[in-house]
Amino acid sequence: MDIETLVKLTSRAWSLSILAHMDRGVPGRQAALIAATGAGRTSFRQSLDHLIDLGLLERNPGHGHPLRPEFRLTDQGAEIARVAHRVEALAKGSSERNLLRRAWSLPILSASREPIYFCEIKARLLPITDRALSQSLKLLETHSWLQREMETSGRPLRPLYVATNAGAEISRTIGA
Asked: Where are the transmembrane segments (predicted)?
């Protein structure tokens, strides 16, 4: 999956989780998906609308009630849902699943498969601010999904970032 798609997909907190649960076989109805994901109604609805706008979900014609519609994955949505399912399976605890819901976690992990500088990550993730990137890098480092190494060969010293542990597995899964 390319970084641009990841940035669009993860801009809503529950998008990845909705796709992963639909790939697991949770029915495409709002009540079932809310129960499975644990999302609040408002944020869930925003994520659902976002997935429809991206063309990953669509209303299932002829199914559901107008007030309780049923949704299904599009062909592109089914491919991304399989990846989302594998990514969520790699997140062991609830704190790691919460980390996956953060907007920049997956795009940063995807960009840092190999050692990379801060400015190079920023260039690959054009809409990200310095502050958001810095905070996300620290958070991923705290969870041991990202490793920060100092390059000592030149002046000034520059940190290199690379995905490690579960972060490296997630990065490989996204890139496959």
From this structure: none
Element (H, E) at 172: helix 165-175
Report the run of H or E that residue 43 belongs to, with start and end. helix 41-53
> Are residue 84 and residue 112 in the same domain, yes or no?
no
Count of domains observed in the chain: 2
Instruction: Note the pLDDT tens digit of each residue in 88-125.
Output: 999 888 889 999 999 999 999 999 999 999 999 999 99
Q: Give me the CATH number covering residue 54.
A: 1.10.10.10
Which among 57, 90, 123 is the end of a domain? Answer: 90
